[in-house]
Design a protein that fits this description.
With 402 residues, the chain is of the alpha/beta class. 34% of the residues lie in helices and 25% in strands. It has a single domain (6-174, 276-392), classed as FAD/NAD(P)-binding domain, CATH 3.50.50.60. The chain has helices spanning 14-25, 50-58, 62-68, 91-98, 107-116, 163-169, 244-250, 256-263, 304-321, 326-355, 360-376, 383-386; strands spanning 6-10, 29-34, 45-48, 74-79, 85-90, 103-106, 123-125, 129-135, 138-143, 148-151, 153-156, 175-183, 187-188, 201-206, 209-216, 221-229, 241-242, 268-275, 287-289. Strands 4, 5, 12, 13, 14, 15, 16, 17 and 18 form a nine-stranded mixed beta sheet that branches. Strands 7-2-1-11-19 form a five-stranded parallel beta sheet, sandwiched between helices.
Length: 402
């Protein structure tokens, strides 16, 4: 009988709970420790790309996630002022090409879905991890309450300000990008004055930023994020409120359909985007990192949660393949995952620059290049991201796609 690996997952967010499901799917023993007094995911919607949906399929969660999300028929790119569609991608084509299509979901609903398939006894809340170390053949997590927990391996899935990462490798050095994001809670479709946007996903590219619009909650609500250049606001918190009039003033020259959409919500939030370089190491002894704790990235490719899901699938497979050799299994996990995740961190950084062009000539060239790529039917950009399958039987034998 294969030896079960005892895993302590630090962090009860999306990455931590999905990793727990992947680990349980492989037959490991898992316990999740969350610092907050209850499981809670802050923020609006997100897009799960084909790579994430294939990974979820491998741990039997794809159908559950699609039941709470929305699968748009097309992804449309618009000119910020005229509203003209400059590019159109088909979900059916994506499914044929990659084996799955996108799904857009609300963060809170996705967290609840992940939690619903786990035994509540496997999750401890109000347990704030302060340090992690390896003592002989045991990983030890120490908590603010004074308690200590031992396991074969500790996985730090505790987010962008990870205490596990700091405990293992020291503080990071985030850099302010000069970019911010405005958001509101998803709004009911019927609440949009003059009618809701189409049932597709929408990307509006304009000067100094972009706006992303898509449906969540099985299509009943609309989520949107507005990215904008702003050197003056440096608060990274997702729950800082701002006035709606500020958002409308920033976008006053954008297409009227966006202004109608923005006017439908009274409560707005904004946060500053900080960038972090890929770190050279994820694992130390019997502890490793996963998700934003390992590879925090800017949101411009919609891959933050997707990469956390991939991490969980590959980590669970590596531990199942080498249950009696945990440090070697963690080395294998990192060797497979870190190059790919680091490449996506850098690609997201480049995409942010591309989305925030300010020169009219540069924006014209951008729109023209998008149109030409569509006319010539070239291979989609970032094809290597969507084509990856973290749940494939041979995932441990393949180097991350370049």
């Amino acid at each position: 009988m294969t030896r079960k690996v005892r895993v302590a997952v630090i962090g009860g967010g999306l990455g931590g709970l999905c990793a727990a499901s992947a680990l349980l799917h492989r037959g490991h023993e898992v316990h999740v420790y969350e610092a907050a007094p209850r499981l809670l995911e802050v923020g609006g919607g997100l897009t799960l790309g084909p790579n994430a949906m294939k990974a979820l399929r491998s741990i039997e969660l794809e159908s559950l996630v699609r039941s709470i999300g929305w699968s748009p028929e097309h992804g449309l790119t618009h000119n910020w002022k005229s509203g003209r569609v400059t590019a159109r991608t088909s979900s059916r084509d994506a499914a044929d090409r990659y084996g799955a299509s996108n799904c857009t979901v609300h963060r809170g609903e996705l967290l609840n879905a992940f939690a619903s398939v786990l035994d509540p006894r496997l999750i401890s809340v109000g347990e704030r991890c302060e340090s992690v170390s390896t003592v002989g053949d045991v990983a030890v997590a120490r908590f603010g309450s004074g308690r200590e927990f031992e396991a074969d391996v500790v996985v730090g899935a505790d987010g962008i300000r990870s205490t596990v990462r700091t405990s293992l490798f020291g503080e990071d050095s985030p850099r302010f990008t000069g970019k911010i994001v405005y958001r509101t809670d998803p709004i009911p479709v019927e609440a949009v004055p003059g009618g809701a946007p189409s049932r597709d996903s929408h990307l509006w590219l304009g000067p100094h930023g972009a706006v992303v619009v898509f449906r969540v909650s099985a299509g009943t609500k609309i989520n949107f994020h507005a990215h904008h250049d702003d050197e003056t606001f440096t608060n990274e918190s997702w729950v800082t409120e701002c006035d709606r009039e500020e958002v409308l003033a920033v976008h006053k020259d954008w297409h009227e359909s966006l202004l109608r959409l923005f006017s439908a919500s009274k409560t707005w939030y904004k946060w500053a985007l900080f960038d972090r370089d890929p770190i050279p190491q994820w694992s130390k002894g019997r502890a490793t990192l996963l998700g934003d704790a390992a590879h925090p990235m800017l949101p411009y490719l919609g891959q933050g949660v997707c990469q956390a899901i991939e991490d969980g699938c590959v980590l669970s497979a590596a531990l199942a393949a080498m249950p009696g050799e945990v440090p070697a299994a963690l080395e294998l996990y990192e060797r497979i995952r870190r190059p790919r995740a680091s490449q996506i961190v850098l690609a997201a950084r480049a995409q942010g620059t591309y989305n925030h062009l300010s020169s009219p000539f540069a924006m014209w060239k951008r729109d023209l290049s998008i149109k030409l790529r569509r006319i010539r039917q070239r291979t989609p950009q970032r094809d290597w991201i969507a084509s990856y399958d973290a749940g494939a039987p041979d995932v441990l034998e393949r180097v991350a796609a370049a």
